[in-house]
Write the structure tokens for this entry.
Amino acid sequence: MALGLSAAIANDILDALANNSALTTIPVAGGLFMKLHVGDPGAAGTANAATETTRKAVTFGTPSGGSVANSVAVTWTSIAGSQDATHASFWDNVSAGTFVTSGTITANAYIAGDTYTVAIGAATVVFNTAA
């Protein structure tokens, strides 16, 4: 299973922390864009893509305790294909761009033409922290 931060971004963070180097791969300006998957997106974030290929911008709230969640619902209208979305990948661009991280989502069957929504607070990015 290859869920979590991309290796490039994880290495960039570790290099910045351990070697006081500049962050080079961390997306800054464009925010994150969510893509649906019907299985583990894999190490490159491209495996098991859903038939709905549109990436949607995600608005996040303020991080706390090593976690941040979406503060606005993420919605696809007139969704392509009929599937069960079980995973998501996050990218730094609406198309192409850099794979940032991936994770699971609550499976939710949809049929072609449906509206699919990830509720407020349902898309979270979490770093394990010392408590």
The CA atoms of residues 67 and 126 lie 4 Å apart. Helices lie at 7-19. The chain has one domain: 4-126.
